[in-house]
Each structure stands twice: as structure tokens, then as C-alpha cells.
Amino acid sequence: MQAKSQLDHDIIEGVRTFVEREVFPVASDLEHRNEYPQALVERMKELGLFGATIPEEFGGLGLSVSTYARIVEELCRGWMSLSGILNTHLMIAYVIRTFGNDEQKQRFLPPMARGEKRAALGLTEAHAGSDAQRIRTTATRRGDSYYVNGSKMWSTNARTGTMFGLVVKTDPTANPPHKGISLFLVEAGFPGFVRGRKLDKLGLRGQDTSELAFEDCRVPAQNLLGKEGDGFKMLMQQLQQERVCIGVGSIASCRRALDDTVRYVKERRAFGQSVASFQNTQFKLVELQTQVEIGQAFVDKLLAAHVRGEDVVTEVSMAKWWTTDLQKRVTSECLQLHGGYGFMLEYPISQDYADAAVQSIYAGTNEIMKVIIA
């Protein structure tokens, strides 16, 4: 146990060093150029991060969720885009190891752990966002294959990914609709699979986000995860962990914005004194720091409960909307304290502000989180 604890500590320290030495110097430039961070992704592969939560028997690091959450914190402190690239990949790995059969685990998890196969999720459609039951992409079985037709929108890792967790309707007439949803593993070379345009986003520009299209895309029946109609259940089970990780990332991003702002207001002078010496500045920062500490305590509590295997769907839905709203509020207030410089792309706070915007939208909008809680 002590050796395992030391190994986890060494991995986290390795990620922290990676962020400080390799991410910080280039993240802002890559973000502004809307460039995929290929060199950083290669380093993440070398560090074993693409196998972070994949069990050791499949070549992964076998880290606990709590240790992985620390890695998410460090990556978000450096550049949120990197966390999104990794989270999406490991989300698919989680579904495979939880619901896949032995052949699927052996076929997919070892190359995923090495980063040779990189995963994306094909869920959202242009007309079906948080309401996954309204998807229209279908898969029809003919012989030993399924033929997929439809399209997906806002798929992270879509252009660089080599495999996709694809959510489809195998029974469009099912009532209730979610019982007709299934999940397939689609590989990039399958005939009829087309990558669409890269999407030009407000924030998280280092992430590779694109459209996907399927035109009679032939998928072997052996690539169906679980049984037909199990897809929605699989998605709901992994969402608890995803929303915990979003809370972790939001708090880490709040801390980064506050740290940057404290440094700035100490250096910036106005009316003969530092901006930090004004009472308004002090009160604003105190209020924000207090809210971040409250959020941290809540997220830590839920992370521990999730690791214990407890059902905390209601609570993680609370955390998802509250921490992401907090992130938007913190980055907005911190940008204001930067004055005109906060509006300049060369200052990290502008990137923090842009990245925060989508946090309340993906993984279920915050409005949907409140419906779940209610």
C-alpha cells in the first residue's frame, strides 16, 4: 500500500513538472493559433496518462479516481484543453472496461493505455444536445454487421481519434425512447465514416472538436457494447464520474484565475498605489476565494463518496452546475480586475474567461442538472 501511495505521488509530481516546464510556456500561443497540441499529447503518452485509469492487467497505470482527479487538477491549472482531451479518451475506456466483453477489453484497452488508439465520443447531434433520447443517428443490422447513418456534432478528439464510442438508435420506435439507444465502438477506417470540418470555438481551442458523418457505415456486430438498448444505461452510469471530474476541473481553473489575478493586482498601479491595496479589490478577491474553498470542500466530499461506490447522482449534479457557474463568475470578476488588459489575448485571464463559457453547457446543461436535482 505504501509503495502504491508513493507511485501515485510520483505520477502526480511528474504531471506537475510537465505542466510547469512544458505546458505553461506554450499553452497560450497554441490556444491563440487554434493549434492542436501534438507535442504535448505525445508527452502525455510517454507519461502513461492515456492509461491513467485503465487497469494494470491491460497495460494501464490503474490509478484510483481520487488520484486521477489530482492529475485533472494539475492539467487544468496548466491548460484546460489537455484535460478535455484526456477525459474523453478515458471516458470511453471506462465504458469498455465496465460493459465490454473479454474480447473487446483485450482488443481495445491495451492500445488505448499506450495512446496508440485514442478515443472520442459521438453523442451530441445538432438537434439533440442534453436530451440524448432525441438522437436520430441509426444503426440497422444486416447479417453480421450494423449499418450506421446519421451525423454527430461537437465531438472532442474527432479529427485525431482513431476510435469512437458512438451512440445510436437501434430501435427508433422504442417507447420510452431511451430503450432504443445502443453504444458501438466505431474505428476510423470503417467504410462510410467521414470526419467533418474542425469547429472554430470560443474557448478550449486546443481541443480537436469536429463534426462526424456516417453514410451506410459498416460496423461489425462484435463492436456492439453490451446488448441492444443498453446504451443509455451505460452513459448514465459513467456520467457520475464525468461530472465529478468537471467539478474538480472547474475548481482548479478558478484557482488558476485567482492566482493570476492576485499577481496582477499586486503589480498594477493606479492613482499612486497598487490595485491590490484598494478595498474593493480586496473584498472581491476574499469573496471569490471563500466561494472556491466552499466548492473545493463539496467536490472533495463527493469525490470520496464516488470512490466508495455510493450513488451521488443528485449531489454531483449540484456540484456540476454550482462549480461551473462559479468558474464563470470567478473568471468574469478576475477579468474585470485586470481592467483593459483582461480583454487582451496575451493575458491568461482572457483564455480562462473563454474556456469557462462552455463548462455550464456540456455533460448536460446546468438547466438539465437542476431538472435532475428537482
Characterize the structure shown.
The model has no long low-confidence stretch (mean pLDDT 94). The two termini are 41 Å apart. It contains 10 helices and 10 strands. The protein is globular, with a radius of gyration of 21 Å. The strands form 3 sheets. The chain has a 4-stranded mixed beta sheet with strand order 1-4-5-8, with helices on one face. A 4-stranded antiparallel beta sheet has the order 2-3-7-6, with helices on one face. Helix 3 packs antiparallel against helix 4, helix 6 (231-267) runs antiparallel to helix 7 and helix 6 (231-267) runs antiparallel to helix 9 (348-356). With 374 residues, the protein is α+β, with helices and mostly antiparallel strands.
Explain the layout of strands and helices.
Layout (H helix, E strand, L loop, with lengths): L1 H31 L5 H9 L18 H14 L1 H20 L2 H13 L4 E4 L15 E5 L2 E12 L6 E7 L11 E7 L5 E6 L10 E12 L3 E2 L5 H37 L1 E2 L2 E2 L4 H29 L5 H25 L10 H9 L9 H8 L1
Parallel strand pairs: 1-4
Antiparallel strand pairs: 2-3, 3-7, 4-5, 5-8, 6-7, 9-10
Helix pairs in contact: 1-3, 3-4, 3-6, 4-5, 4-6, 6-7, 6-8, 6-9, 7-8, 8-9, 8-10
